[in-house]
Amino acid sequence: MDKMPKWADVILTPLISLILAMGISALVILAIGESPWMALTTMVEGALGSSYGWGFTLYYATNFVFTGLAVMVAYHASLFNIGGEGQAAMGGLGVALVLLYLPLPHWAIALPVAMVGAAAFGAAWAFLPAFLQAKRGSHIVITTIMFNFIAAALLNYVLVNQLRPVGSMDPASARFPEATNLPALTDIAAAMGFDWGRNSPVNVTFLVALAACFLIWVLIWRTRLGYQIRAFGRSEPGAVYAGINPVTITVIAMLISGGLAGMMAINNVMGEAERLVLNAVEGAGFIGIAVALMGRNHPLGILLAALLFGFLYQGGGELALWTSIPRELIIVIQALVILFTGALDNMVRMPLERLFLTMRRTSRGAVK
Amino acid sequence: MGGRPAAAAPAAIELRGISKAFGAVQANRDINLTVPKGTIHGIIGENGAGKSTLMSILYGFYKPDAGEILVGGRAITIADSQTAIRAGIGMVFQHFKLVQNFTVLENVILGVEDGALLRPSLSKARGVLKQLAADYQLSVDPDETVENLSVGHQQRVEILKALYRQADILILDEPTGVLTPAEADHLFRILEGLKAEGKTIILITHKLREIMEITDNVSVMRRGEMVASVKTSETSPEQLAELMVGRKVLLNVDKTPARPQAPVLEVRDLTMRDAEGVERLRGISLDIRAGEILGIAGVSGNGQTQLLEILGGYPEKGAKVGGDVRMNGAPLPLSGSGCDAGQRRRDGVGHIPEDRQVEGLIMDFTAWENVAFGWHDAPEFNKGWLMDNDAIRRDAQAKMERFDVRPRDCHLAARNFSGGNQQKIVVAREIERNPDLLLIGQPTRGVDIGAIEFIHKQIVALRDAGKAILLVSVELDEILALSDRVAVMFDGRIMGERLPGQTTTGELGLLMAGITDTDHTPAEAGIPPEVAHDLPQGRA
């Protein structure tokens, strides 16, 4: 814990991991005969070089904040929720049902109602795995991943057989009422007198995501429930001794986790597509795992990591658009970042810890 | 070399200037140690004094930063445990390293098989084991599966493993921690037999009694340094204790006779079956009155843990509990939703659990977070939805001040405190709540002498404040020193109750082994009367 200063733990380690991942990505790009420098400039230009690019980067980041927070809350209860994908998909269904069947006159009213719908459906999808884990000991990794497939199948069925408008060939719901469409951040900026360039998908949900980061920080580190979640996550026998009910905490933590994953639908379903389509989540549930890992399960870290992955998503898209680097390579680059910042974390961390220890020892020796 | 006097023979082990640091912590500093061949050498010191580090260096687990190791007069570098074994060093760890579902024979040859086929190795080992059993009273059934053996027999397997690898020097790390007095006594006879055959034995312990009883020489470690090496016959327990902590300590607890009042806890016919249907408690009945300490003696694993858990409000999952428990006259629920550790605390039951690292503390939490542990619902720690972290920190700092927890930094994670200071945090948290009934499990396990003294004083002070205390400990000395009455538990039953002034460790040892037949005197049952010599003075 105290092996190295906090800044090295929180900033230096992921930064070095990131640089390593970029280095290897560069080698891969070189190997297929393209210029890594050009790839980098294209990505930076495409993701950060224009307000349009920024809009997309922030839009993706919003998705990843929600799924990252979902993984984080479960992690603090020592539960590995890899069902964010399914929970986010079900959150989309919740949003669609609320917006299609409830008469909501204005987006400002529709937003909180849709949030409740999204969170309720996401949480409901996490409930059964949580209950099975708490009561029967069925491992949550297995059950949540199975629930991802069930969610995909269920959504397929609902879209094709129930929500698809008569006569449409598309497995998607009808468009949501015009009044419930969320304002884009560019619209808000324009209303406040700023000219923030072209229309892009980032919308008010981004502000909701920022608020969620803060509220989850309060929940985990400032409330009694958060204290109980963390205590349970670190020692179950300890929690039992302290009068913390493992079943209750497991279920509550997973409900919050599933609810957060479901809330992502506010961004992609309500804010962007404005109707429910197949495969709306596009892997954001899984990216959430990498985001939480890289963000060291802290909301601030998750926000930064989500921005990085938003950049990779948008920059990667641009790369496929403007260069002859094949689309698959972008997945390779993203995978390398996940690999280094998540799975290979200790490869960087341990030498760093040793370095700081020797530095501390020599400086102490010098004082003597 | 037959004609030369023993004194001129090279020492079995000689350490010169061994130092080892872990990060900023100097675990061993300039250690010099000479262990003559054919002797039993005790190494004594508080927890964290560096005993285990030193032995790990000797066994090749750690590389020393500086210094020299001589085995049989020859300087060697011990890079790993294989080198140590080749040099004739064998180690018996505190936590046995046996494959539970292998037989004794299979465990003995594990890692030293002669070839790809096991049969020749096994039959060779069978012969060797037979010989060793005859030579050193080390009889164990070679074909028995290890998990079916008692703890004492498992330890014999560990010793056999070392001897099978032709160890001349045997290191035993806290060997008696898990043994009954009778088993410990048998172990000592084995060690004496080994010594008679010319083996050298290093005994690491923090129990003064063992040092006085069996060793030839003793070295004392304190804070990573070797502070003294003396002949056992020329020292006393008091002197050793003083050397260990660097000041005089009270080995006996200073307390006045108890003035018991009305009963606080009344337990009648408490039974418990665990989830597998095994009967763990078979009808426990006991009373504890206000202002007295009831000690529960017994070898661990005889139902004490289950008793504490049930009284603490958290019987293990799936257990069936029966019987009647009343506190201050009101029945305590033993199952269902009323049986809850949080509710017990509100009913005035404090609990210092047996294992502070698994139950009593969250090791990754800071000291101040741990001060609220179990009491996180308390109104003074909360304001509305949020926890009042400032209030908790103030409370933690005050408690650390009063209980002299070092370092006095409530932001440090629990795992960064020494065992004694961790225990002080738990004791402070539970005692300062002023509970009507305090449950205590192993209050001083793995705690250094200075902290033991302090914790014992706090427990007695709580008693004198008119509270009822249930004390469970496997340390007979502790039970005898603190308790006003002693009950002995064996196999889920109370074997009998004694007054500490009117019993002997021999008698209690028999009860702990499940023998109630009063016709047996301790001597006949194989427990030498000398064991009783370290009873608190004026009681024996």
From TrEMBL, chain A:
Keywords: Cell membrane, Membrane, Transmembrane, Transmembrane helix. It comes from the Bacteria. CDD domains: TM_PBP1_transp_TpRbsC_like. It is found in: Cell membrane. The keyword Metal-binding does not apply. It holds the Pfam family BPD_transp_2. The chain crosses the membrane at residues 12-32, 52-75, 87-103, 109-128, 140-160, 202-220, 240-264, 276-295, 302-323, 329-348. Coiled coil: none annotated. It is a multi-pass membrane protein. One of its GO terms (molecular function) is transmembrane transporter activity. Its main location: membrane. GO terms for cellular component: plasma membrane. This is ABC transporter permease. It comes from Paracoccus gahaiensis. The lineage of its organism: Bacteria, Pseudomonadati, Pseudomonadota, Alphaproteobacteria, Rhodobacterales.
From TrEMBL, chain B:
It is a peripheral membrane protein. It holds the Pfam family ABC_tran. GO terms for molecular function: ATP binding; ATP hydrolysis activity. Residues 519-540 are annotated as: Disordered. GO terms for cellular component: plasma membrane. Keywords: ATP-binding, Cell membrane, Membrane, Nucleotide-binding, Repeat, Sugar transport, Translocase, Transport. InterPro entries: AAA+_ATPase (IPR003593), ABC_carbohydrate_import_ATPase (IPR050107), ABC_transporter-like_ATP-bd (IPR003439), ABC_transporter-like_CS (IPR017871), P-loop_NTPase (IPR027417). Its main location: membrane. Gene3D superfamilies: P-loop containing nucleotide triphosphate hydrolases (3.40.50.300). CDD domains: ABC_Carb_Monos_I, ABC_Carb_Monos_II. It is found in: Cell membrane. Residues 13-248, 265-516 form the ABC transporter domain. It comes from the Bacteria. This is ABC transporter ATP-binding protein. It comes from Paracoccus gahaiensis.
